[in-house]
Each structure stands twice: as structure tokens, then as C-alpha cells.
Amino acid sequence: MSRLFASVRARATLAATLVVAVALVAAGTAVLLSLRSNLLGEAGTQAERSARDVATSLAVGTRYTELNLDDDDRPVQVVDEAGTLVAASEDLERITGTGVDAVTPQPSASPSDDGDDGDDGDDDDSGESLEAGEIGEPATVGDGTATVDGDTEDYRFVAVPVETRGGDQLTVYAGAPLSAEHGAVNTALTVMLIGFPLLLAVVAWVTWLVTRRALRPVEGIRREMAAITASEDLARRVPVPGTHDEVARLATTTNQTLAALESSVERQRRFVADASHELRSPIASLRTQLEVAAAHPELLDLDGAVEDTVRLQRLAADLLLLARLDAGERPADARVDLAALAREAAGGRTGVSVRGDAAVHVAGSRGQLGRVLANLLDNAQRHARSAVEVTVRRDGEAAVVAVADDGEGVPAADRERIFERFVRLDAARSRDDGGAGLGLAIARDVAVRHGGTLTVHDAPAGGALFELRLPGERA
């Protein structure tokens, strides 16, 4: 069991750690992507600013052969409408990502410097129609690499179209280094790779401690249950923590189960003791008669021996039926006419009358219900002065059988006690009359098994009125 608790703690710790790990990876990925996006956007803004500065100079009349591109360590290319590189940063040694890999300018022999519009094309590379001295909308070309003065780095390139006053359609490519983006992303990634495992270790450790503390009451319940099992002392109870949570409810339910088990075992012990006591008398009487008959055959009381044998047989049958009921035997689902069954049970009995509806049907075991009516009639006849009346009727959806006698009745304080096993209230329930105190107990158990009730009240004639109420047969 301790290994089970350790396994529960391990599984809880693993599950919590995995959930936190997934959350951290998702959050970290989102942070890195957001950081990279922001830094790339900033690099694009810087590249756009550099390209606009050069495009502005061209737009105001500076000839591309006269551009000063040496003051900026960022790679710059100026390309005409034919795709020829006409100007570039002086220290530019290699470049990729702009679509123009040339790094050595090839200016025209006589670049335009007047105001002629020319008709060598009205559209630049971006498809915009520009007027003289106008700068077009910038466009992000993408990422690439460039070697400037021997240093190779990654860059974000932006293209800005411009038309000079001389009518030249030019495109300015400028790049901004991505070293800051790479550095920030790498730093954040390094922090995450170091910090996430430490954080997961803390989460696992805390979860392990919290789970162990939460399962400590369960371990206490387990130890107490093991002690109860070893000692077979069902009077002991497991400790109930004062947390009012699921563990406390488990302990309460366990104690309720132990109480029910203790009650059941105690009832079974009393039943065995009472049954042994009840069986002892007829067996002893029968043995005595047989021993006397063996020594003196002329003294054999055959009628008494038969009576004791019948009494023993009835008691054994009662005990067997109670054992089947206690084992949870489900009654049959046959169609039973209580009115006919009552007339059958009353047949041959002196002073017993039956009245009521012609047919009252219920679903159940004919044998068990017949046993209930027989036991109620036996009990009524033992207590009645002269008459017993059986009434069978319908009461709404219920079927009711009432057995009334004109005896002394049952005191209110004993109206539940008489349904206990092996209970006799007076001499009328003596062993000499053949009663073992099981008839009413069997009758109530059978009624309950059939979904009904058996109660006792005062009869109109002053005696006892036993009322059997069962669910009526459904249409």
C-alpha cells in the first residue's frame, strides 16, 4: 500500500510537472516569436530609414555617382530600372537577399541630370508610377547576408523606389543588421533553457511535498484498517481529518461501512447463537425419546417424537429461508393473486374469514408471499380469542392485505421489536406452541424484498392489525 501511495505521489508529481512544462514551452515559444517579430520590425524600420535617406538625396537632385555612401556601415545598393547596380557602399564586398548580387557599380556614361522626362519606362521595380523627384512606398525585400569591410552579418533589406529629376527610375536597397535580434533571441533562449529546468524542478519538489501532505490522512486510514484487519476488532474506527474534503468524506464513509459491518456481524452472531439455542431443545427432546425407546420400547412416545421432528423441520426451513433472504435472493417475478392466496392460506383454519376484492394481483414469489400470509395467520390465531379476519383490497396503486384478530393487541413500545428474530413477548409465543420467534421476522423480510412494508396497528375489535402493503401489478 505504501508503494501505491508513492506511485500516486509520483504520478501526481509527473502530471503537474508535465503540465507546467507544456505551459512553459508554449509561453516561451510565444515570447520568443513575439520578441523576434518586434526586433525584425525594428530592423526593417532602420533599413527603411537608411533607404529613404538615400532616396531623398536622389529625389532632390543628387546624382547617384555623387552619393556619399561611406558614412554608414550598413549595406546600400542603388539599382536602375534595368537591374544594373549604379551605386553601392564603398566597403561592400558581398551581398545576398536583395536580388542584385553585384557589389561593383556600373554607372552610365552620361547619367541624366536635367529635367527631361524621358520615356525609358514609367514604372519602377515595384510597379509604382512615379513623377520626377518622387519617392515610392518602401517594401521589405527579406533577410540576407552582406560582407562590409570584412565583417559578414545577417541583414533585413528594404527597397525604396525613387525617380530622379532627370527621369531615372532607381531602386534603393538598404539593410539593417540583425545582430541585435539574434543576440536578444539567443539570450532569451539561453535564459529559458537554464531557467525552465530549475523551475520544473521546483514545481516537482513542491508537488511531491504537497501530495505527500495531502495523502498523509489516507496513510493513517490505511494503517488503521490494517490494524482492524489484524485484530478483527470491528469496534475500532479510522481517524477522520478535520479538513472537510474528499479524504475526510472517505474516512467518514469507511467508518459508516465498519459500523454496518459490525452490526451485521453482531446480528449474525446473535442469529447463530439463537438458532443453536432453538435447535438444542427439539434435538435434545428427540434424543431423549429415542434413548428411552432404545432401552424400553414400550415407553416410546411416537407422537411426541413426530412432533419434535416436525418442529425441527420447520425451524430448519425457517433458518434456510432467512439465510437466502440475507444472501440477497431476488424474488420471482410471477403474477400472484393475493385474494386467492389469502383464501388458500385460510382454508381449513378455524375462526378465520376472508373478505375483499375478487382479484388483487402483484408481481412476486407465490411461495414466499404464501409463507407471509401463513405466518401472519399463525401469529393471529395464537393471539386471537375467537376470530381472525383477513381483508384483501386495493389502495391506489398498492395491494393491501390486513390480518386482524380480537386478542389483546401489541403494545406500542413493542410494535417494531416483534419483527426481530427469535423475539417472544409472552407465553403465547412459547416453544411449546412450536414458535421460535421467526415467523414475523420472515414475513417482514419477504415484504421488504418485494418492495413492500409490513406494519402492525390496533384492530377495530381491539386486537392487533397486521397490514401487508405491496406494489400493485402494473398494467
Task: Note down, in words, how this protein is organized.
With 475 residues, the protein is an alpha+beta fold. The protein has 3 domains: 1-231, no CATH class; 246-326, Helix Hairpins (Orthogonal Bundle), CATH 1.10.287; 334-471, Heat Shock Protein 90. The protein has 7 helices and 13 strands. A 6-stranded antiparallel beta sheet has the order 2-1-6-5-4-3. The chain has a 5-stranded mixed beta sheet with strand order 8-10-11-13-12. Helix 3 (246-295) runs antiparallel to helix 4 (302-326), helix 4 runs parallel beside helix 7 (439-449) and helix 5 (338-346) packs across helix 6 (366-383). The radius of gyration is 52 Å and the shape is rod-shaped.
> What is the number of helical segments per DSSP (H or I, 4+ residues)?
7
Q: How many domain regions?
A: 3
- Biggest sheet strand line-up: 2-1-6-5-4-3
Could you estimate the helical fraction of the residues in percent? 40-55%
Number of strands: 13
Largest sheet: 6 strands, antiparallel
CA-based shape: rod-shaped
Order of helices and strands: HEEEEEEHHHEHEEHEEHEE
C-alpha Rg (nearest Å): 52 Å
Mean pLDDT: 83
Report low-confidence residues grouped into runs of 5 or more. 109-127, 427-432
How much of the residues is beta strand, in percent?
Answer: 15-25%
Structural class: alpha+beta
